[in-house]
Amino acid sequence: MEQIADVNMGQPPDELTSPPKPPLAFRVGVVGHRPNRLGEADLGQLGRVIGGILEQTQKAVKAFAGEHADLFASGDPILRAISPLAEGTDRIFAEQALALGWELCCVMPFAQDEYENDFQPAVALEDDSLQRFRDLRARARVCFQLDGSRAEEAAAYGAGGRVVLNQSDLLIVVWDGQRQDKRGGTEETMDEARRKGVPVLWIEAKAPHTWRWMGMDPEPADISELVRTSLAVPTPSGGASESGREPIRGLLKFYTEGMPRWCIAVPWKAFRDVVGDSRWPRLTCRVPPFEESVCEEWPRDRSNPVAALVDTLRPYYAWTDKLAVLNSDLYRSAFLTVYLGAALAVAMALAPMLWAREGQIPLERLSAPLELGAILGVLLIVLLGRWRRWHERWLDYRLAAELVRHLRVVAPVGGARPFAQLPAHHGTYGSPAATWMDWYVRAVARSAGLPDAPVDRAYLAASLAHLHDLIEGQAGFHRNSARRSHIIERRLMAGVVVALSLTLVACLLHLAGVLSGPMVFLCGALPALGAALAGINNQGEFRRIAKRSGAMEERLNEMLEQVDRLRERIADAPAGEAFANRVRILAQDSAQILVNEVLDWRVVFLDRPLEAAP
User: Distance (Å, rounded) from C-alpha 106 to C-alpha 90?
Assistant: First the structure.
């Protein structure tokens, strides 16, 4: 395997010569009781149990990093502890994590000034509670302050718990086993973790604080197995993906990709411009730098915390997106050339029928080599396309790019990354969650983390503006795709009708004895051309794309209206009303809609590999 240089996240984007590898990161979150429900606990022993779990996790992550250094960027693994720093369990966990050198990420349900009211002497459950909180807060690398309202206190704590959950690869729960069905508390976050499939490690809140896995089937043998399972590139049932390749091989192949300076896949661009857009094609074989090419839709911007976090994701999107475009152009140019080449081969076989006059060199001396060349060209293109896997690489890189694109709208608001899962009736196409693309984006999401910022009105306005721009851009893309695909489909079908109509005329003229030789040529060549146009139409799925893109544009316009309504409501709302949770839910819903569309689109084209024209 070709040696690939590791990419550092701080490296200038224009220096990248291969796809960026994400840093290895592992995140452990905590929810648990406050001192009022730790009456039967041995706090010293509880701390040692939590510390032991974190230490085992740390050793397992470092061992995995040493065994799989080729999967991640160089540097030490990121070990991140996610804690709200409430009294009791949260602080014991945070102190143990800091003692082991972990990064501490504090998720507050309220702005810090308001949250500190929980730790004032009149209501605190610990001695020097406020100072202890401030000391831990000062040691935290990131503090994500939600805008919870005391008027809806349970909802605020619940929103904080969901952010902790979304940021956790393992959730530690310190619970006494007594259900109280309290909103926003330990049980609610624990139950949601089990529904979402986040591993839950339950530590008894009573001494001697034994622990067990909760709701996992099968249960890991130990923490090392859990870490390996969480970080490993998946192996689907049967050991291969739907494209017949193990995910690990696809990932390593992706890492060996380079940025070509030239690409000769211009037939598709010419066809698209002329047939779909009715304009003279502006063709170039030169490939611009990947990150420079995405700056219009993904501007370089670090002017606010939202933009700064999104900016770190750009290299991952640029490489996956532009590699998808290159392979798409190659695949589409290939099937255009194959179908038209097959029609050309038929025409060359019939060319001697045009004329053969005494004393002239027979036309077959020219047409036969051209026919042979067309046939060999078709076979060569098909073999080259299958060997280079243009079709599979296009679909793989496109899914990875779209998952990163959608991550950019949920990461700044602490949302869960979009879930790549096909409906049951598409089960034969394999699970997208068991692909290297899903693994790659999960690794990127782990390393991205949360912004160190208060989620105030300005922050939410920036998040919604960012979401609005993304949805608006996608709606515009689908509007243009629907228009262009409809035109291409209509014109290709018109071409088929014209070719068959001219064939009918040629047959009638041949029967009438008019220009018998040329008419025989046309009677064979025109149907071949019509079949080629129909094959291009079928392979490109232009009718289905037009319908799907039209429907998707309507759905995205509905989402835009929801975004605009929420922006107006935030702008007009009185101070103290909480909106972070609503923005997070809207961002997650929008991202999931976009991901579902991409997954469905992917299923359509999985059934369209490059094949020799019949």
Answer: 10
- 400 burial type by CB count under 10 A (0-12 exposed, 13-18 middle, 19+ buried): buried
Residue 586 has which token pair?
């809207």
Q: Please return the burial class of 270, using the count of CB atoms within 10 Å of its CB with bins 0-12, 13-18 and 19+.
A: middle
Q: What per-residue confidence (pLDDT) applies to 518?
A: 82
Q: Give the tens place of pLDDT for each residue, 563-593.
A: 999 999 999 998 889 999 999 999 999 988 9
Specify the pairing of strand 211-214 against strand 200-204: antiparallel
* Residue 373: both structure tokens together: 């060349």
Instruction: Please choose, from the candidates 88, 84, 125, 123, the residue with its C-alpha nearest in 3D space to the C-alpha of residue 105.
Output: 84
pTM of the model: 0.91
Task: Give CA 525 to chain center in angstroms.
Answer: 45
Mark out the alpha helices in 185-242 (DSSP H runs): 186-196, 223-231
What does the DSSP assignment read for 222-287? SHHHHHHHHHSPP--GGGS-TTSS-HHHHHHHHHT----SB----HHHHHIIIIIH-S------BP
Q: At what angle do helices 186-196 and 153-166 cross, to 10 degrees?
A: 40
Nearest-CA neighbor of 582 among 407, 415, 403? 415
The answer to whether the CB of 412 falls within 8 A of the CB of 463 is: yes
Give the amino acid at 16: L
Neighbouring CB atoms inside 10 A of 2's CB total 9
- Main-chain dihedrals φ then ψ at residue 245, nearest 5 degrees: -120, 145
| Averaged pLDDT score across all residues of the chain | 89
82-110 per-position pLDDT tens digit: 999 999 999 999 999 999 999 999 999 99
Supply φ then ψ for residue 299, to 5 degrees: -60, 150
**Across the strands, what pairs with 212?**
202
- CA–CA–CA angle 463, 466, 469 (5° rounding): 150
